[in-house]
């Protein structure tokens, strides 16, 4: 049952979104330009400049270079709650294969000093463009809301440290008390759809680097060596039992060995091997159990192989759990249902990870985070009917990931404005 407040919120959203036709052409051009000029994590200089220019033109007070390349726009419109809307800006070291007329041919230098191709393979260009569109609409529609709107553009989501970098750089001191944080992500679902989920939504993630040691020697004399390649292989096989035999089948968790590096030549037994693992969990108890199991297995296999030196463990690129606040999510879900009708659905939890929650946690504000579809609905339906969604629909981080510009941009912009209105709407 809708209340007076619900009715006022949806009316405010619809009045503000009445200006969408006026910015649509600008948004589409901005998106193509941004897609053509992606930048790696912590290197979002051009993107930041374009964001700053747009926010200043729309009348926002702008804080630049927060956490390196982060940008925060603040628009105060009378007394009332403060709502923070967030977008991430960075791209990935991926060579684009979409064949779009605005495809990226950019290159960059990664944090290891390597020259790499760069692509917006995760849709952050959609996020930035949609939030800038929402910021412009909120500025133009000030007669329909009151309070403070904050548009936050975050660097380095892909490395999992951009949000915390902004917090550590004094983000809270730049802002009034924030009542709620809202964010979204484009997903490989039909464009025009909006999915939201209360409670734990996206997994926490830990990347772990493990170095195990052997004793090098000639490939013809293995008896004089301790082979770290065999040791690493045994560790990989044994790690497959952690999820299947040590974690309850009802507890979602993922453990992936994504990289093994050892040796330089076919007839030389090397003296060490490096494994890189990724762990996805939804609670700290499961995370601790998995990490403990990894240590136990690696140490035991090293002992079984006669390793001359203890293994070394390093956790890096950690992402926090995204645990959507239930009252906040319920409020947003309700107004989404009013705005989008049957295009709004309950999105199940996923094993992907985000650092958005570090913003809410760092500011002491509840948050919710949702997904918007970005795939051509006809192509998705065709793939689904043929049972080929996994094969035919490119997902985030794929070199073929190419969100349909419309209705994706319209939907993402609508979602941001609509979600803010339960707090800001008159």
Structural notes for this entry:
The chain is an alpha+beta fold. It is built from 13 helices and 18 strands. The strands form five sheets. The chain has an eight-stranded mixed sheet, with helices on both faces. A four-stranded antiparallel sheet has the order 12-14-10-15, covered by helices on one side. The longest helix is centred in the C-terminal third of the chain and has 22 residues, at 284-305.
Task: Please outline what is shown here.
The protein is an alpha+beta fold and 426 residues long.
N- and C-termini, Cα separation: 19 Å
Total E-strand runs: 18
Strand proportion, as a percent range, falls in 25-35%
Shape verdict: elongated
Low-confidence stretches: none
Largest sheet descriptor: 8 strands, mixed
**Largest sheet, order of strands side by side?**
1-2-6-3-7-18-8-17
Overall structural class, as computed from helix and strand content, comes to: alpha+beta
Mean pLDDT: 97
* Proportion of residues in helical segments: 25-40%
Cα-based radius of gyration, to the nearest Å: 24 Å
| Separate helix tally | 13
Structure keywords:
13 helices, elongated, 426 residues, alpha+beta
SSE layout:
Elements: H1 4-17, H2 20-36, H3 45-57, E1 61-66, E2 70-77, E3 82-88, E4 107-109, E5 115-117, H4 124-140, E6 147-154, H5 162-168, H6 171-174, E7 180-190, E8 194-196, E9 199-202, E10 204-213, E11 217-218, H7 228-246, E12 254-261, E13 268-269, E14 272-281, H8 284-305, E15 312-319, E16 322-324, H9 326-340, E17 344-346, H10 357-363, E18 367-375, H11 377-385, H12 389-392, H13 405-424
Parallel strand pairs: 3-6, 3-7, 7-18, 8-17
Antiparallel strand pairs: 1-2, 2-6, 4-5, 8-18, 9-16, 10-14, 10-15, 11-13, 12-14
